[in-house]
Sequence to fold (482 residues):
Amino acid sequence: MKVLFTHSYFLRFDSKQFKTAMPYPPLGTLYAMAFLREKGYEVKLHDTMFSFSADEILPVLQEFKPDIVVSYDDGFNYLTKMCLTNMREACFKMQALAKQNGCFVITSSSDAADHFEKYIANDADAIAIGEAEQTVFELCEAFKNASSIENINGIAYKKNGSAVKTSKREVLKDLDHLPPPAWDLLNIEPYKAMWMNAHGYFSLNFVTTRGCPYKCNWCAKPIYGNRYNSHSPHAIVKQIKEWKNKFGFTHVWFADDIFGLKPNWLKQFSEAVKLEGLKIRYKIQSRADLLVEENSVKCLAESGCDTVWMGAESGSQKILDAMDKGIKVEEIKKAFYLLKQYQIKPALFIQFGYLGEQLEDIKQTVEMVNELLPNELGVSVSYPLPGTIFYEKVKEQLVSKANWTESDDLHLMFKNTYPPQFYRYLHKFLHHTYRINLNKSNEHELHKSYLRKKGSVMYHKLMRKKVLNSLKKIEPRAASIF
Fold:
């Protein structure tokens, strides 16, 4: 049988990310394609990353004539975990076109797992929930043999007119048994061209692990769960070396939720990089409490790590504890300075609007950012995702709006201390303040190009004053706090 794979992330539907111009291929999709190809299926990719419309799948359906269409989102990319409505509607459209062309339809994504009833009502025959390579294979086998799917673990489907779920599927433990991603089935050129035109270098995404063992109560884990399993360092290094030679990238984003958590993994990875003679720069995501160990940071530096994104979230210990984050503000600062000591650029994710956050908590966060001045800063507001404790606390309020339209939506969708517009202004205020303080810092030279790109310091001072006036209209105390 012939299987057409696609996914529902359209870069052009997310204006902020399109402007950022850092596209990464759908890695999870490529893993699933490789797995099914190894089982003997003929597979093809319709990559929607640079598409203008969901309708672009139609000529592919007519030419390839697949028996099955699998919409398989990249579960390693945080943008797909946000479940943006633009992407959901596009997926529904592609599902409908696939059914109109006589195909079975399988869908695997965070959003489909959370809202399987909606996807089944919009032409999906089955939803693969959780880690889905084996699940998709078993569904394809069932469709091929015209047999029942009701005993397949990890799916939702329609039974007697209603959407039902089967038992949970266990996650894979030995990731090295998976075939490497089907990079050969991807047209890499548009990715490379956008990176080179916008940034002058080309970055590609890889993963070394699946899952996250930590318990942050706002962070959804619908794909790989709280289990943490990893590839061997040597397998990852060989994979990167092979495709670096073919694609010519010079930078890697490791899309793991947590990079290098297992004992000795970082040391073995650093040794494997040296053994293979691999020269690469890379960025990762990690936690502050893992980055206070000097040996770990040293291994990162020696193996080519140039940027670490930390989920700092807040400068208020009260808010970190409310999130069940499991870290201390002091650890954030210690990890930050240790990274700088080893010439690794620290970057921070900040989150405003968590339940119970007051102006004093916000002040502590702003002060932390101004003290540390990370090389990069990502600011968002708390976003309720199904399956989390946080979501359960606010779900009754998610009536008029339960998902963002695109990643720059930044609408606070539940009632908190301040209205949604306050957090929009706060987001802008912090960014303007951050850019002004970068200019004042002793490391001005490091940030010159960044400041040129984002505009003059005078511009940011004028905009900060304007935004602060807007904040004061909502909360008069903002003037004294900021």
User: Anything to note?
Assistant: The longest helix spans residues 420-440. DSSP finds 20 helices and 15 strands in the chain.
